[in-house]
Design a protein that fits this description.
The structure is a single chain. It contains 19 helices and 12 strands. By secondary structure, the chain is α/β, with parallel strands linked by helices. The protein has 2 domains: 227 residues, 3-Layer(aba) Sandwich (D-Maltodextrin-Binding Protein, domain 2); 190 residues, 3-Layer(aba) Sandwich (D-Maltodextrin-Binding Protein, domain 2). The strands form 3 sheets. It has a 5-stranded mixed sheet with strand order 2-1-3-12-6, sandwiched between helices. A 5-stranded mixed sheet has the order 9-8-10-7-11. A two-stranded antiparallel sheet has the order 4-5.
Length: 430
Amino acid sequence: MNSITFSRRNFVAGALGVGALLATSACGGSAGGNSASQITWSTWGTPEEGQRFKTFNTAFKADNPSINATLQMVPSYSDYHSKLLTQLTSGTAPDVFYVGDDYLGKFVSAGVLMDLTPVVSGPDAKVTLADFNEALFGAGKTDKGIFALPNDCNPDVFWFDKKALAAAGITENPAELAAAGNWTIETFLAMCAKLAANGMTGAIFWNYWSTHWSWVTANGGEVFDSAGKFVLPQDPKSVAAIASLADAFANKSFTVADTLPDGSGADSLFVSHKAGFYVQGRYGIATAEQSGNKDDYDIAPWPTVSGKPGSSGVAASYLVINAKTKAPKTASTFVGEFLSSKGQTLRLADGGNAVPSVKGADSVVLGGNYPAHAKSFLDMTHTGFEDFSKEASVPGLSSDVSKAMLSMYQGKASAGDTIAAVSTLIEKAV
């Protein structure tokens, strides 16, 4: 599982750790690197991902023989951030490290990260601002600088099962409808209703920020305004979107993946042709392969009111530099090459389960010619958005919002009560 997927499943508050970080960020200490030519860098992930990172390290060493980059790998997402917070307070944190999107805002506000503007500017930059969709910077970019850059990402696409759709009497292809500008909310909901009427699940969603807010924007609504104010409750389109979301879960057209029982989880439903749509990232390729015939599956973007392409959620994790590194130039070289199209191609090609966060690495997504409409991954990355910085800046807030939304998804709270509850959570936190 790629590190990006943890953004949809794990929401670790870490409030005490971040509080300690804020209290001690001005204290002295030294980062992991011992000289200008030696750095340490850290991330979380599976052993399989660790092999990819080691492959990058080897290639980086070949291109930069005078630099030693040592990888510190932590298997667990929550353990990783707990360890990192301890290292930052004691002054022993790595020079370069990953940060999850649900922690990023507080790290930035604590002042423990180096401004990465020099990494993406100048004639020798391996990657530039223009290579990224700026909406993916999330809480990493402020009026004081750019303190984090997305290392790769996963747009939430609509994986669909052609066999399940056919069994429900649906003859239209969502990807083809999208290409023609006719992939509407109305058409999608009608398909889900047909699937439910035939004893199948219409669509499976993970309960996290991308599901709630992508549905709002797909319906023409607004969540936060340009000033960062939570305006959803005052926007009629947004209120109607939340109401329609509640209705779809109530009538069993939609299902929450997080609450499905062991043995009958989202992957199991989808590969057994018992669900029409499954909303997740590029790692869905592995799910489709479990079915024995991955060509039964394809992807489409989020439907919209007009049917024209819109902007939807893109989960990301970030690469940052410790503000106290003793090797800022070396660390900047490493980050530039790690995030470059060459670096991302090396890390994500041949079975990688994420999407490059920069332009120029399209071969990673298109090279395998799967799924048939794989280009949607790229299009949605370039037009999508990360969790809103006001929400992402408060550890645990996204989790609390998702808990409130889950009550609505399970029929325990009305749409109006849920909007009120979420409003209270955001007002208190922000």
